[in-house]
């Protein structure tokens, strides 16, 4: 809960135009967001671009955070929307004013996630339907609780559990046919 209070304070500072607070928020969450976006988009370059789009959107809309959800949940919701803008080919809303935001090179956690991209498990996840791949990314890559995943996706927790169950079963079947132990 202490980290969440710190994130809310950082987000409040971002809303006031504090770019250092945005950099700290980025450092705290970029690895998990990138892992989720990589699973969602299936492409490292696209995931990196969407992560930057996400942070730009956070910069622009931090003042709109009302505290109705955890900051982490709100960030993943922003990332999800930015990914869908990018994947649909729809440009995200234009910023109201030019924004100067920090540019960070990928960290070791991001490089490790990308390096695992060629494993049989990663290939099996890539073949899942979008709604299953998204739940896998949010639960296992991002490590979010099911209630947060449900809030991000806008579905009941039972639906998240069902999607997770079906995704895991599909992964198990795929890996079994490839001779990979579960």
From TrEMBL:
Gene Ontology CC annotations of this record: DNA-directed RNA polymerase complex
The keyword DNA repair is assigned to this record: no
GO molecular function: DNA binding; sigma factor activity
Keywords of the record: DNA-binding, DNA-directed RNA polymerase, Sigma factor, Transcription, Transcription regulation
Domain of life: Bacteria
GO BP, sorted A to Z: DNA-templated transcription initiation; response to stress
Domain (RNA polymerase sigma factor 70 region 4 type) ranges: 121-171
RNA polymerase sigma-70 region domain location: 25-88
PROSITE patterns listed in its UniProt record: SIGMA70_ECF (PS01063)
Keyword Transcription included in the entry's annotation: yes
NCBIfam families: sigma70-ECF
The family this protein is said to belong to: Belongs to the sigma-70 factor family. ECF subfamily.
Protein name per Swiss-Prot or TrEMBL: RNA polymerase sigma factor
Annotated organism of origin: Phytohabitans rumicis
Lineage: Bacteria, Bacillati, Actinomycetota, Actinomycetes, Micromonosporales
